[in-house]
Amino acid sequence: KKSGDRRHCKWCAKYKPDRCHHCRVCGTCILKMDHHCPWIYNCVGFKNHKYFFLLLIYTAAATHFITWTMLDTIMESVDSATPFASMFAILFGGVLAAFLGILITGFLCFHTWLMLKAMTTIELCEKRGQRGGKRGGSPYDRGFGGNVRAVLGDNPLFWLLPMSLPSGRGLYFTEEDPSVLIPARELETQRGVPGRGARRGRRQGVDIDAYGGPLPPRSSNSESQIWAEVSRTFGYGATDMAMLGKSGVNQQDAYDGAFSGTA
């Protein structure tokens, strides 16, 4: 968890990226898992973190609006001429709105602080921020603007609207993306462990488990040189290279080692 090496979930037996955690309630791994919320009966993770954050904003705004606009009605209901049933209903509604408003506002402030710190609730509890970067900070910190965009999306015009989700696939969250990743074909079916090609590469001294290590810089190499470099790095044989060539894989894409499952 702290070495940066590839992990696999012991429950799902599949590849487990950084910031991914297994939820025993949902029975699956959640990318960038924040917590399991019983109120929405779902996990809060990479794909719905913005929706959860907006839910807090909308709920806090609604409860505050109800509380402050009901003050005059509550004061009038205290009059002895008001029927007991009406007075009870008004007082109960006002107190309930005020209580929920205070509770959700505190929860919203907490998650806003987590967003600006580039942390999740699980990471805060595990104190993973001491792994790197500033002491007490997060290794995934991208600054104020970057941290907000990582949750609310890239376009500021849609930050308060349930649309325009953050870019990315939830596999990595650092500014410097890994230059080489194991292709999906090198992961054994339904298991997050390197396949035969990756093991051959490891025997040849290629550190593929730790995202492969950087390849030489892209240059104007010939097509044959590029394919030779791909074959040497990932341990592909002649049959593998022939299959890649017939599938129409772009040589530079294969050279870059994009984690798209096509190389």
Structure commentary:
- The protein has helices spanning 49-69, 71-77, 84-116, 121-126, 143-152, 196-203, 223-234, 238-246, 251-256; strands at 7-8, 15-16, 21-23, 28-30, 35-37, 42-44.
- With 263 residues, it is mostly helical.
- α1 (49-69) packs antiparallel against α3 (84-116).
- The longest helix is centred in the middle third of the chain and has 33 residues, at 84-116.
- The chain starts with 6 loop residues before the first strand and ends in a 7-residue tail after the last helix.
- Residues 177-221 and 254-263 have low confidence and may be disordered.
Layout of secondary structure:
Elements: E1 7-8, E2 15-16, E3 21-23, E4 28-30, E5 35-37, E6 42-44, H1 49-69, H2 71-77, H3 84-116, H4 121-126, H5 143-152, H6 196-203, H7 223-234, H8 238-246, H9 251-256
Antiparallel strand pairs: 1-2, 3-4, 5-6
Helix pairs in contact: 1-3, 2-3
